[in-house]
Amino acid sequence: MSEQTALVLFSGGQDSTTCLAWALDRFDHVETIGFDYGQRHRVELELRRNVRAAIAPRFPTWAAKLGEDHLVDLTVLGQISDTALTQDVAIAMRADGLPNTFVPGRNLVFMNFAATIAYRRGAKHLVTGVCETDYSGYPDCRDDTMKAMQLALNLGMQARFVIHTPLMWIDKAQTWKLAEQLGGEALVELIRDETISCYNGDTTQLHDWGMGCGTCPACQLRAQGWAAFQGSHPA
């Protein structure tokens, strides 16, 4: 298992693209993994390819480190989930206080499959963009969950994986700032112009913070973070 090989859970959104840059800045070899789980915002599967392709000409040093991409068919997850991310229903809050965009078990399944690929590829480091500072309240994004997953994966696979969560304790404004620190204005522009976080997968509306419907929780978080990030820059 290579100490300098990482596998990044990469959806093609703001958070996972920032995490990809974070990994490329730290490790010698970085691969990516994405999941088709029947999500209604399936446009992200196409955009993630565009983001990967844009890295080479813009960041030659990172391009030399960027390895294979793995796309896993998890459409069965969408078939057994009754959520606003896998069904054509309005986004709303549930009685338990969680939004109906929560896909039960999604990140747990993702981490299991990522670890399986990492085991086969000899990658020690798993990098994911989960966060419990500025998020929708999903329990599978929390630090305790990721720590428990690391323990379970290492016990169950007799391995020594390290799960990295670079965004866990920062908000969206700080995530934009981290991107700027990692790749300068070029990375900020790439994330703004080429990634999508919108739960509705709306690429028809362009805002100063990027593509999206502008009203779903993911768009609102991204827009608020962008505004705060821009406000932190001197005029």
UniProtKB/TrEMBL annotation:
ATP binds at F10, S11, G12, G13, Q14, D15, S16, T17, T18, C19, L20. Signal peptide: none annotated. This is 7-cyano-7-deazaguanine synthase. Binds 1 zinc ion per subunit. Pathway: Purine metabolism; 7-cyano-7-deazaguanine biosynthesis. It catalyses: 7-carboxy-7-carbaguanine + NH4(+) + 2 ATP = 7-cyano-7-carbaguanine + 2 AMP + 2 diphosphate + 2 H(+). Zn(2+) binds at C198, C213, C216, C219. One of its GO terms (biological process) is tRNA queuosine(34) biosynthetic process.
